[in-house]
Amino acid sequence: MPQRSFWRGYLKLSLVTCRVAMAPVVSDRGRVRFHTLNRRTGHRIETRYVDAETGAAVADKDEVKGFPRGPDDYVMLEDKELDSVALESTRTIDIEMFVPQASIAWIWYDVPHFLIPDDEVGEEAFAVIREAMRSSGTAGIARLVLNRRERAVMLEPRGNGMILWSLRYGDEVRPETEYFKGLGGEAVDKDVVAEVRKLIEARQGDWSPKLLSDPVEAELRKLIRRKARATGSKAKKPPAGKESRGDNVIDLMAALKKSLNPEG
After folding, report:
1. pLDDT of 243 over the 60 cut
2. pLDDT tens digits for 221-230?
3. For residue 104, what are the CA distances in angstroms to 50, 141, 148, 198?
4. Does residue 5 contact residue 21 with C-beta atoms inside 8 Å?
5. Could you give the 3-state DSSP secondary structure of residue 175?
6. Which of the two ends of the chain, N or C, has the fewest CB atoms closer than 10 A to its terminal CB?
7. What residues contact residue 160 under an 8 Å CB cut-off, 6+ apart?
8. How many helices (H) and strands (E) are present in the chain, helices listed first?
9. Where are the alpha helices (DSSP H) in the chain?
């Protein structure tokens, strides 16, 4: 079952706008996860915030963000203050420019998300932007606020949809020269290289996600099944949620013509 979208907003290119939804490409729902229990009662253990000095539990309404400015000295920021600096990019992916798709090295890629149209009205505009990028071999660069942090993002076509990659900031990627300094001067025996190439060719095959199976995960599941048969298990169905939709799309051809000739 496809994972529900965690973000909904608009994809914008000049005057062309369409509703879109975004969901993470990577999911850990299939992984084995554990709860911490009270061994004596079998009940789950709750995690609560406590005051580091008094040890007293802190109510949700008393929790506040704090930025350290010195030892035991913080600038307190309320949620409404943090929301006041939110940018328009919290709900709009505004494509600012296009770059050759192959020009961004993989090392700058951070987290991938599936991007799809969120209603039938916007499917045409979405498809036109996607196919234009595909035919020109380009990727779109935009900005988007995720978890109250503005990120540079890259959009690229993939199948009938798009992939939106959040990109790492320049100061997040360490210069490779710091680690590769002094390498490259060693002598390499060509005959040995030829033998290693034979080894590579002998082990070469087609890529498949099945190559990335996790043997520890498989053994954990076997252990859980054995214990479950002995102790039984209970499961609760989560309540079904409701999703809202809306239309806010302008005429595609009119918008394209006006974008290319704003004074016409």
Report:
1. no
2. 777 777 777 7
3. 45, 11, 25, 32
4. yes
5. coil
6. N
7. 130
8. 6, 10
9. 79-84, 123-136, 177-180, 190-202, 215-231, 252-260
| Percentages of the chain per state (helix, strand, coil), in multiples of 5 | 30, 30, 40
Collapse the DSSP code of 177 into the 3-class scheme (helix H, G, I; strand E, B; otherwise coil) and give the result. Answer: helix
155, 131 in Cβ contact below 8 A? no
Domains, the chain, in order of start with CATH, read 1-25+66-179 (2.40.290.10)
Strands across the sheet containing 109-117: 92-94, 7-13, 16-24, 109-117, 161-167, 149-158, 138-146, 97-100
DSSP reduced 3-state for 127: helix
Amino acid at residue number 185: G
pTM here? 0.65
Q: What are the tokens at 145?
A: 């606020």
